[in-house]
């Protein structure tokens, strides 16, 4: 009996979360629409629902996320403007045993692309809170949650696993 349990535990000592796994998880979970600023003076209605994942592509120990947002920027006395905001982030993944999920920490903005390039608004004052909002969303939500229905994942969830990045995958291992 002890040998059987030992074999079972050693055979499920790791689980890999691929870029595709994380992408599918985030496609189901990511999305919000919020307003930042002061209505009637200067504000932006932001819709965020598209993210692309890379694991270990920007740096060996980081996950990169390309987030696409659309904002409708309104400033008193001006015609509303639509803005596409593409922000590339990188972050360090970590496993939270309490949640049984992978979260991100140490978020860095790697690149920002704003279209149209020329806006009739003070770009930094309006778009900085938008970038911060998307960043906070990414830091406070899991990017992948282990599945209790999957035997291997549920065994790891209850252990104290280590999280590593190998071959563009997150490897959770005991």
Overall helicity: 25-40%
How many alpha or pi helices? 4
Low-confidence stretches: 1-12
**Strand content of the residues, in percent?**
over 45%
Total count of domains = 1
Give the overall shape, derived from the CA principal axes.
Answer: elongated
The H-and-E topology, N to C, reads as: HEHEEEEEHEHEE
Q: Which CATH-level-2 architecture?
A: Super Roll
Task: For the record, give the distance between the C-alpha atoms at the N and C termini, rounded to a whole number.
Answer: 21 Å
Structural class by secondary-structure content? alpha+beta
Give an account of the 3D structure.
This is Lipoprotein. The chain is of the alpha+beta class. Helix content is 26%, strand content 47%. The protein is built from four helices and nine strands. The strands form two sheets. The chain has a six-stranded antiparallel sheet. A three-stranded antiparallel sheet has the order 1-9-8. It is elongated and about 60 Å long. The relative contact order is 0.21.
């Amino acid at each position: 009996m002890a040998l059987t349990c030992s074999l079972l535990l050693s055979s499920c000592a790791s689980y890999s979360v691929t870029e595709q796994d994380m992408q599918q998880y985030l496609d189901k979970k990511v999305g919000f629409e919020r307003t930042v600023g002061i209505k009637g003076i200067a504000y932006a209605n932001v819709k965020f629902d598209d993210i692309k994942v890379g694991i270990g592509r920007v740096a060996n120990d980081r996950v990169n996320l390309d987030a696409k947002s659309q904002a409708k920027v309104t400033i008193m006395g001006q015609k509303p403007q639509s803005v596409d905001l593409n922000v590339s982030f990188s972050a360090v993944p970590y496993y939270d045993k309490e949640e049984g999920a992978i979260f991100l920490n140490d978020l860095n903005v790697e690149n920002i692309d704003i279209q149209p390039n020329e806006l009739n608004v003070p770009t930094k004052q309006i778009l900085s809170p938008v970038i911060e909002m998307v960043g906070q969303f990414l830091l406070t939500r899991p990017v992948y949650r282990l599945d209790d229905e999957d035997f291997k994942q549920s065994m790891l969830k209850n252990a104290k696993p280590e999280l590593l990045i190998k071959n563009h995958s997150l490897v959770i291992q005991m």
